[in-house]
Amino acid sequence: MARGWVILLALVGLLVAGECSSHAWTLARKAVPELRRADLELTAGQGAALGLLGGFRPLIADLTWIRGYILWERKDRGSEAHLRVACLLDPQSNTFWEQRANMVGLDMAHWEVRARGGRSVPIPIQETIFKRYAQKALDGIEEGVPVVRNPGSLLALGGYLAETKLKDPLIGADYYLRSYRKAPFPWYAPYFHARLLKDGGKVREAYVFLRPVWEKELSKKPDGSPLELDFLRELERTLGVPMKERIPTQTFESPFPSTK
Amino acid sequence: MFSRIFWIARVTFLEALRQRFLAFLLLLAAAFILGSVPLRSIDFGHGELKFLADLGFGALFLFGSILAVVLPSQLLYGEIDNRTALTLLAKPVGRGEFLLGKFFGSWAVLGVFTFALTGLIGIILLVREPDVVARAIALQVVPPEVSVVGLFEHALLQWLRLGIIVSLALLVGSLAQTFLYTVVVGSMAVLASQLVWIAQDTLANPEAVLSTVMRGALWLTTRVFPNLQGYNIGEALVLGQSTVVPGTVGSLCLSAAVYLVLILFLACTAFRRREI
């Protein structure tokens, strides 16, 4: 075959093949959430590049995590980069995202307070540091929610951090609500959502939310969810709900249970 | 023509099966896959099945890629160095037929390799599945599910991917003069193909600021090198933890077929002009 024809055929073939490959990759891309080049570029070294080559990602993620964990034990803030790479290499792992959020939101804030002088650091400055790290941890949680296997528990952790470190009950309530909407959610998610709404001054909203949840779901549990019921009673008293409209006394609450 | 290609492929297949390198890699990969079972206790919350599947697919990917580069190069240069190629080509056998026979023989061996290892991975996953599902239900988390169809689809995709690598190795072998050069350049071509998705993502990103020259270079890269990363969707296919858009497997098969035809055409053309 003449050289010119070969070159022409090869060029046409490359065009067709390239188009097919681009189309196939557009479809296959959605099945590979861990390949996020822009994220990995910021933190990853050769280890991540190796991990991207297919297979062995969890193993490399584990080794990266172990390295990050060793640095964390030494209270080295360099551990954060390793923890992040581990999360990005194996984004479906709840453990990585949750532990990372705990380490950043709880431990690293304390390290900084200690580095600045511990108890001698004025409380408002301590609070600012805790809030900054809590926000960082919450940003990490937001990054993990779309890709993690069980987003419910990760969001519940976000609620805990928002409540205890960010000191914002309404943001915490929002996290618990999102957790409740992602089955399977931790059992305490609806309770804490309502509790934090109340702490944020939204008592009626808390009652309006928790009552139907308790009646339709929580009361069906074998123990009848007494913690949530107690809280509902408290809300009914606070709101002054008329006796007729309150939740009827349950058998497990009554001092004289029915013999029927 | 087809019967001649078939006979060369058959001889190549039988010859490849006798190679110690194949047996060594097959045993190594199988040991790696079986070794992942005790390793599953290193649990950082991946989920046991995901860990087993990923390690198994990793072994298939790594050892399969090594085999797909080395085996056809070894078989091709074995024929050339031992002068058997000259004897064969003295008969009414075209050079293209000779090369296609080498390709199909090597690809068939890789088919055995791929489906044997996938079978082993499948057995391990299916044996562990009931236990893992029971544990997930007890912990009130989403239980994983092993898809046998997905496993077969993944094996098919891997086989196609290895076919592309074999054809790349033969293309390089048709142009090169030594076995070592073929293996090194072939491996680099595979590495480039494995990372070409970065160029495709950059081109597809509307926010990427690129000069015309850079855009042209990236575009050319995505046309010259096949994207081999797209074939690594085993976890999504088998465990269904992330969505596989309908038509993905078909589209990847079509892409692989086009690249196979193109690379083999180029390899045959180059081999016709090669001095043996």
Describe the model:
The complex is a heterodimer of chains A (260) and B (276). Chain A is an all-alpha fold and 260 residues long. Chain A is built from 12 helices and no strands. The relative contact order of chain A is 0.06. Chain B is globular and about 70 Å long. In chain B, helix 5 runs antiparallel to helix 6 and helix 5 runs antiparallel to helix 10. At the A-B interface, helix 1, helix 4 and helix 6 of A face helix 3, helix 7, helix 8 and helix 10 of B.
In short:
The complex is a heterodimer of chains A (260) and B (276). Chain A is an all-alpha fold.
Features:
heterodimer, A: 260 residues, mainly alpha, flat, B: 276 residues, 10 helices, 79% helix
> Largest chain-chain contact?
A-B, 47 and 57 residues
Taking the sheet with the most strands of chain A, its summary is: none
| Count of β-strands of chain A | 0
The biggest beta sheet of chain B is recorded as: none
First and last CA, distance of chain B: 22 Å
Radius of gyration of chain A: 26 Å
The total count of helices of chain B amounts to: 10
Number of distinct beta strands of chain B: 0
Write the layout of secondary structure elements.
The complex is a heterodimer of chains A (260) and B (276).
Chain A: H1 3-29, H2 37-43, H3 46-52, H4 57-73, H5 79-89, H6 94-115, H7 123-144, H8 151-164, H9 169-180, H10 189-199, H11 203-216, H12 226-239
Helix pairs in contact in A: 3-4, 4-5, 5-6, 6-7, 6-8, 7-8, 8-9, 9-10, 10-11, 11-12
Chain B: H1 2-17, H2 20-39, H3 48-81, H4 84-90, H5 95-138, H6 148-175, H7 179-204, H8 212-224, H9 234-239, H10 248-272
